[in-house]
Design goal:
By secondary structure, this protein is mainly beta. It has helices spanning 101-105, 189-196; strands at residues 8-15, 27-35, 38-46, 58-67, 70-79, 86-95, 115-124, 127-137, 140-149, 156-162. Strands 1-2-3-4-5-6-7-8-9-10 form a 10-stranded antiparallel sheet, with no helix packed on it.
């Protein structure tokens, strides 16, 4: 529970059925509560905790979590999961507004219409990469590669993005313009309220 009472999560971890009779049982994870003020749920599983005895061994996970309108599914491997400094995950992320990620992850992204992205999320210490992702932001398709370096004096974000159908209204938040919501445009509730103002 955080100081403002905005985070209160209960997680149930129990043994599952091993895939083979002589294998160690996996762990099944289920949780719910509030994460930084948002309703939170988590479901998934991991390999047996016996695999943690070798911190250099990639540890398999599959997790499906929701915090408010944000939904994330991660499946892949963590190396030394107690530090979360090296991982390789297939990572699908969707929600109503990319700006909602700031209170959840501490990553500041301008406002956007509803989005759904899927790609490979990798971390190697101070270097984060979201590779070969595809998806939609509003009415635009979006794909490419992102790299985020956090070890220097200032964080550095570089990206190569591609789109076959780009609606510039979907990028309004990135340039400080008000959103457009009429004429069949995809927008979230906050964007509709801002456009009405």
């Amino acid at each position: 529970l955080d100081a403002l009472g905005r985070t209160d999560i209960r997680v149930d971890v129990r043994s599952g059925q091993p895939k083979q009779a002589d294998a160690a049982p996996p762990l099944l994870v289920q949780g719910k509560g509030r994460w930084r003020g948002n309703p939170f749920t988590l479901r998934g599983g991991t390999e047996s905790p016996l695999e943690l005895t070798d911190s250099g061994h990639p540890f398999r996970i599959h997790l499906d979590g929701r915090a408010g309108a944000t939904h994330a599914v991660a499946s892949g491997t963590l190396t030394n999961p107690f530090q979360l400094r090296v991982f390789d995950l297939q990572f699908a992320l969707s929600g109503q507004d990319l700006a909602d990620l700031y209170p959840l992850l501490g990553i500041a992204i301008p406002p956007s219409p509803p989005y759904a992205l899927n790609g490979r999320l990798k971390r190697d210490h101070d270097l984060w990469r979201y590779e070969q992702f595809t998806g939609k932001v509003g009415d635009s398709d979006l794909g490419g590669n992102l790299q985020f370096e956090v070890g220097g004096a200032r964080p550095r974000l570089t990206a190569t993005l591609e789109s076959r159908r780009l609606d510039f209204d979907d990028l309004a938040g990135f340039v400080g313009a008000p959103p457009k919501t009429g004429g069949g445009e995809t927008a979230n509730a906050e964007q509709k309220a801002e456009a009405a103002r």
